[in-house]
Amino acid sequence: MLSVVEPAGGLPCPRPFNLAAHVLARGVDQADKSALQIVRPSGAERWSYGRLIAAVRGCGAGLLARGLVSGDRVMLRLGNGPAFPVAFLGAIAAGLVPVPTSAELTRPEVERLIAQLRPSALIADQGLTMPANPDLPVIPAAEILAMERLAPCDWAMGEPDRLAYMVFTSGSTGHPRAVMHAHRAVWARRMMHEGWQGLTEADRLLHAGALNWTYTLGVGLLDPWSVGATALIPAPGVEPGQIPLLLKRFDATIFAAAPGVYRQMLKSPFNPSPKLRHGLSAGEKLPDLVRDAWVSATGRPIYEALGMSECSTFVSGSPARPTPAGAIGYPQPGRRIAVLDAGGRPVQRGEAGTLAVHRSDPGLFLGYFDADEETAASFRGDWFLTGDSVALSEDGAITYIGRQDDVMNAGGFRLSPLEVEAAMNTCPGVTETAVTEVEAKPGVRVIACFYVAPQPVAETVLFSHAEASLARYKQPRIYVHRTSLTLGANTKLSRRALRQEWESLHAET
Fold it and tell me: In a 10 Å sphere around its CB, with 0-12 CB exposed, 13-18 middle and 19+ buried, how is residue 491 labelled?
């Protein structure tokens, strides 16, 4: 039996369609219900659905009044506050294209993204890193929130396949790529509500991630609002150790985070809220040690999902269908996926191959911005290649084997080693670098930089250079001095060989 899963049923995306209008539609008839709470141990900032809808549509009107027109790109430099969802959905409501960026980016990184994206405006929180001399309009977050008082904009309705927003991903190319998503992407997320999250209107979902991350944006905001639930987001400065208190104090029923957050939370004992039903994990592979520790400490299951910036999640465990031991989950209902060999042909079930998503999937991206060749290269015929090696069992369960390339997963963000190497190669005294992930201890993976230099470079110099050049999640945590990096066949660089060598020595010590 071939490793192909065909979708069953599924309603097509309505026409005309607007992502923001769909996300907020369930809130129209429950204007007084809490839609968003920015939570901290001392209290919360609460937004009702009525206020959120007014703010989003007022923001759309305000952006158009500033001279922006349909299709204009708007870069977001915003942290975990209400301005983020208001600006994101407000831009989409008005037909503009928001592009979230990480709050951790350094000035050179921001300037490179602006040069690549060529946005018409920038919306920014006070205190976040900005370009040295921006030659485009900068709209403060406070002004975005003040637009709540404006008359609402009309929903910009249109074809579901048109561009709605972009997110940046590093991928395997060594430079950030803007992933273009259509309005229909939010319609496709309906497959996750039952196929992963078990999400209902009565839920209060707390997501412990940055809003500019696609995992948090989708699971933490868009999904709860699409069903009329309440989104709980930790305020800036909240530490993982404080999250158990927030879960209990704010009656969270579902918790979502990357594996690293679960690991940090479990460093201290805690009693879960009696209302908490289960946890969700995505962004990187959930180590069995972390899963077992969470279940032992809380008595609650974690449902894991596999996805990427180009298609969000599409394979997952769920309350509706228990996952067999060793598997990551099942293709979500409505997904068409396959496991392919090197020639792009489906392998037999049980055999390893590359996980692929059919181009007809409504959640699949439109392509990479200004990169037609890269977009075409990511497909084999009608199949988008994820780069993940998996095996599909006879009953459809997916077992995750690993990545087929050198792409790293830094706290849930897929990251090319080439991007980090390009930054570290400019460090004084360093002549060459190779960057890869290593397992520092069981279940804990960090970025390691192997560098060539006449003499070892002081770690303070290396760390300072990385801090000035790279966002925190991209910075290496381990530095290893070497005399050569040519470890592979044909004198080619082998990051895998470097990783295996380091882990072997580390295990011995």
Answer: exposed
CA–CA dist 473, 497 (Å, integer): 23
Fold of 416-508: GMP Synthetase; Chain A, domain 3 (3.30.300)
Selected from 3.30.365.10, 2.60.120.10, 3.50.50.60, 3.40.50.980, the CATH number assigned to the domain covering 18-31+46-157 reads: 3.40.50.980
Residues of the chain with CATH 3.30.300.30: 416-508
Which residue type sits at 64? L
Task: Enter the pTM of the model.
Answer: 0.87
Terminal-to-terminal C-alpha distance of the chain: 46
Identity of the residue numbered 471: A
Distance CA 317, CA 396 (A): 12
As a whole number of angstroms, the distance between CA 337 and CA 373 comes to 23
pLDDT digit of tens for each residue in the chain (509 aa)?
A: 889 998 876 789 999 999 999 999 999 999 999 999 999 999 999 999 999 999 999 999 999 999 999 999 999 999 999 999 999 999 999 999 999 999 999 999 999 999 999 999 999 999 999 998 888 999 999 999 999 999 999 999 999 999 999 999 875 556 789 999 999 999 999 999 989 999 999 999 999 999 998 999 999 999 999 999 999 999 999 999 999 999 999 999 999 999 889 988 988 888 888 999 999 999 888 888 889 999 999 999 999 999 999 999 999 999 999 899 889 999 999 999 999 999 999 999 999 999 999 999 999 999 999 999 999 999 999 999 998 889 999 999 999 887 777 778 776 777 878 789 989 999 999 988 999 999 888 878 899 999 999 999 999 999 999 999 999 999 999 999 998 886 665 456 788 889 888 998 886 54
Angle 414-175-491 (CA atoms, 0-180°, nearest 5)? 90
The SS3 call for residue 337 is strand
Where in the chain are all domains bearing CATH 3.40.50.980?
18-31+46-157
Helices 459-469, 417-424: inter-axial angle, 10-degree rounding: 120
How wide is the angle at C-alpha 418 spanned by C-alphas 413 and 421, nearest 5°?
105
CB 261 within 8 A of CB 240: yes
Evaluate whether 75 touches 113 at the Cβ level (below 8 Å): yes
User: And the tokens for 392?
Assistant: 């599909």
